[in-house]
Amino acid sequence: MTAGGRERVVLPTGLRERVLEASRQARAAGHCAPEIMAISPAEAFSRAADALFGLLCALSEENWRMPALRGLDVQGLVGHLIGVEEDVHRCLSGDPGVAKANHIESTQSAAARQAGRPAARTRADWRRAAGRTLDLVHGFGDPCAEVAVHGMRLPLDALLVVRVFELWTHDNDIRRAVGLPASVPDAPALRLMTGLAARLLPHAAARTGLHEPVNVHLVLTGPGGGTWDVAIGERPPDPVSIRIIADAAGFCRLAANRVTPADLDLHVTGDPGRAAGVLAAASALALD
Amino acid sequence: MSAALDQVRLDGPVTDQTALKRCAVAGGRVSVQGVGGTDALLAARLEAGDDHAVAEVFDRLAPAVYGAALRVLGNGAAAQDVAQDVFVELWSHPGRYDPAAGTLRTYLIVLARHRAVDLVRSELRRIARQERHDRLTPGQRHPSPCEEVTAAQAASVVRAAVRLLPDGQRRVVELAYFGGLTCREAALAAGIPEGTAKSRLRLALAKLETLLDRQLLESS
To answer: Which CATH class for the B157-220 domain?
Structure first.
């Protein structure tokens, strides 16, 4: 008997392996439980567009003049989004001219065009542009076909998730500008976003000069979260392993470069320097 | 985001088992303070499909879970089955654990005890069915040593619960179930009307269900 009066229990040999194997059989690792209903990237884009339109409808004339981002007021930021949609239209129509266009520079004229216009016109223009994007997507055919726009070459479905990221990010830029609370995408949309951010981590790491090999066990908690094992850098026989646990929506804000790692409730196992590098790489995913 | 997605590599689980630490990152630098993984964080990780989390929970709580089942069942093989059920249940339905309602340790131990009690009940029902069958069929079958041990354990648990019944109810249960009397014979033996004997039996059986739970839970 132990000091606490309880008998010391010796676990039978093999019980651990048996339990873990049975667990793996019962539910595959990686996916959140309960399972969320999967939606298509086009549906996620449609929902994000609806959410942003709802927000724009709720803004006062004064709100449209509030400074929002990069010297743009809310109306200018919506103009930027109109410009992005127009470039996506060109991309989906097969125009190679937008493949390497800069995300900001290419849309500056569209942003500037909105200055002084009635807010309702800007709002209607943006709505029309987002609707046109969806029409083109539905008529495009293969959602896995690669497309190229703003320096990205990626499958159409992935591009749509990038667009969901951007709409949500600027939705929150506008909310912050006018003093409204932040929004979080619904779980199915967030799941697409977290999945894309996790898959793109190696590319982001390469872009930020993180070449040392590291295995990242990334756990994103909450609705829309999941677990990923991501290999970064070139693979030696025994790469360093780190584990990063963060809230799913928080990690997406990090990937959108709207918060710093210090703003997140992060739990890290392993080399903190490597973890900092990976988190910095996640921030570099943002287009802005 | 300029590279093609087909270059993305997704590999199998890593084997890092070092202590969970909390990390604050500022200006690209990370400071790490050692902290224990809270139950809420473990629950969130399980919900997120983090298979490392279920291994960590096992390493931390398996002795308590297995021990709880073993104390009820007294049978190592059955207790292993219960322990497996408990951890698979946690992994399959992590949302059923509410960190606000109590610790993960308590939740898993209670789950183990409930599963063990269910197993005892199921065994009792099986024994009762077997006895009925044996009475109705010619030629007696001798139970195996394993069946005898299991039956003795189950009987001990039930007798302990019966002892907690009020006197009147306990007497009728003992006459009817342990003495093998019919309801009318039990009523005569106890010196009470048959209707009273029946209602006491009904009340006793309902109470036994509750008492069995409580007794088996308190036993560990």
So the answer is: mainly alpha
The answer to whether A78 and A123 are in contact (CB under 8 A) is yes
CA distance B10 to chain A (A): 5
Query: How much is the pTM?
Result: 0.73
Q: Which string of b and e fits B125-144 if b means at least 16 CB within 10 Å?
A: eebeeeeeeeeeeeeeeeee
- B121-167 pLDDT, tens digit each: 888 888 878 877 777 776 656 667 766 776 677 777 777 778 888 88
Q: Where are the alpha helices (DSSP H) in chain A?
A: 15-26, 41-58, 61-64, 74-92, 108-113, 119-140, 156-178, 187-207, 248-255, 272-283
- Contact of A266 with chain B, judged by CB distance below 8 Å, is answered with yes
Q: How far apart are the first and last CA of chain A?
A: 63
Q: What is the ipTM of this complex?
A: 0.86
- Gyration radius from chain A CA atoms: 22
CATH architecture for residues A188-283: 2-Layer Sandwich (3.30)
User: Tokens in use for B121?
Assistant: 């009940």
Q: Which residues of A touch B41 (CB under 8 A)?
A: 221, 245, 267
**Please, what CATH class does the domain formed by B36-136 belong to?**
mainly alpha
